[in-house]
Each structure stands twice: as structure tokens, then as C-alpha cells.
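stage 2 :: seqdesign
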């Protein structure tokens, strides 16, 4: 049985980023103590990049063998490599490139400069995922005020793809319109899923996602759950609508 989600509230956004960074370093060390390689999926946005910046400042991060960490992203905007609106670009600028990762193990979604379509990028991303293992140790997800996760939006057909690892997303309600996202099916192959959420504008969706009666079609964030743990790492503002 999948464990119930655990909610951990931090006083503010910076405290949340710092605590999540320390938690991620610990998780990676734990994985590397029992496995050759740790597999993680990252997220973009301001908080997704702040956790990377905080990781670079965690003293214990030097104990992580970053060459034994394989990195993915839960979703990516279908934009050319290096575009400032791409999640990977934002993470790189926050300090990801300073950690000593083996770049051959950093799996980026192809943009229009490298593929013919978002569909082709999704297929290539899925093929690489299948080549290098069938699951994640830790997936870090953000959540939008509308309750979307990765690029799986409320009432969007991309949610309903059940036979793929990654999916092309068109007509996204949030620009840019074309994206590539991991599917719910892929996210379900994660040992731990962490939601990083800050801000009062997301409080209503946090409460809805944690309501056991919520429908993912309406609240996509209610769907992803780790096989061993699901953690909601949120700040006090985002927690303000919880019982």
C-alpha cells in the first residue's frame, strides 16, 4: 500500500528551500550507500532553482559523489537549448553546473533546435529513461496555483496518457504552449515524490491536492505518489488552508 502523504511546514520560502536542499543531500547519500547510482528528477520555477542554490551551500553536499547522480526533469518547455525560460537553464544558473555532475548523466529534453517536434522530443526522452533504469529515487515537483504538476494541467488531455513515459503537451494554459512532460504513469515509478510549494496563492490547491476525495482531472497534484514516501514540503503561506 502506498504510504499517506506527509506534510512538513516551514516558516517561509527560503527556509523551505534550505531544508529541502539538506533533505535532498541526505537522500542522495542514503541512496549512494546502497546503490551505484542515484536517480532524481528536478523541477523549474523560482523554488525549483532556489533548492539548487541551497544545495550548493549545504556542507554535506561535498560528501555526495555527484558523478553517480543521474538527473532528469519532470517537464520542460519546448524551447531551444539555453533559453532562459527552460527549467534546465534556470537550474544551471542556480548552481547545478557547479556540483560536478557527469554531463553524460544529465538528461535534457530536446528543444526545437534539436528535434522536429515536441512529440519527437518526448519519444527520445522516454527512450533515454528506459535505457537508464525504470524509476526515480527522488522526484521534486512544484505545483502551480491551478494545481498542475510538471506540465500536466487541469482538464488537459495530456493527463490521460497512460501508455507512455513522456508526452508532448500542446495548448498549455501557461506559456509557452508547447512542452514535454513526464506522465503520471512515469511519476508513479518513483520511490519518493516531494512537492515544493510556497505562497498563499497556492494554498487552496494544496488543500485540494491533499483531500483524499480530489479528482486528478481537476487537481493534477493529487495524483503523483511515491511508492515509499510522498512529502509535501511547503511554507506557512501555502499551508494556510489546511485543516
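stage 2 :: out
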Amino acid at each position: 500500500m502506498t504510504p499517506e502523504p506527509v506534510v512538513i511546514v516551514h516558516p517561509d520560502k527560503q527556509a523551505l528551500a534550505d531544508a529541502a536542499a539538506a533533505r535532498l543531500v541526505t537522500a542522495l547519500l542514503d541512496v549512494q550507500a546502497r546503490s551505484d547510482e542515484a536517480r532524481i528528477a528536478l523541477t523549474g520555477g523560482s523554488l525549483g532553482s532556489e533548492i539548487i542554490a541551497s544545495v550548493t551551500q549545504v556542507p554535506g553536499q561535498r560528501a555526495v559523489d555527484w558523478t553517480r547522480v543521474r538527473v532528469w526533469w519532470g517537464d520542460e518547455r519546448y524551447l531551444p537549448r539555453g533559453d532562459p525560460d527552460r527549467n534546465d537553464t534556470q537550474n544551471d544558473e542556480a548552481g547545478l553546473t557547479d556540483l560536478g555532475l557527469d554531463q553524460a548523466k544529465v538528461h535534457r529534453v530536446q528543444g526545437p533546435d534539436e528535434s522536429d517536434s515536441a512529440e519527437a522530443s518526448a519519444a527520445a526522452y522516454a527512450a533515454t529513461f528506459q535505457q537508464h533504469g525504470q524509476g526515480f529515487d527522488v522526484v521534486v515537483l512544484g505545483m502551480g496555483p491551478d494545481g498542475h504538476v510538471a506540465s500536466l494541467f487541469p482538464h488537459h488531455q495530456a493527463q490521460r496518457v497512460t501508455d507512455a513515459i513522456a508526452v508532448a503537451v500542446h495548448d498549455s494554459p501557461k506559456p509557452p504552449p508547447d512542452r514535454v512532460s513526464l506522465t503520471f504513469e512515469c511519476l508513479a515509478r518513483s520511490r519518493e515524490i516531494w512537492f515544493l510549494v510556497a505562497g498563499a496563492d497556492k494554498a487552496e490547491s494544496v488543500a485540494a491536492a491533499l483531500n483524499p476525495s480530489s479528482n486528478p482531472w481537476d487537481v493534477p497534484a493529487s495524483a503523483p505518489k511515491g511508492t515509499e514516501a510522498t512529502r509535501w514540503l511547503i511554507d506557512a503561506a501555502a499551508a494556510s488552508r489546511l485543516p
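stage 3 :: structure notes
- The mean pLDDT is 97.
- The first helix runs from residue 13 to 34.
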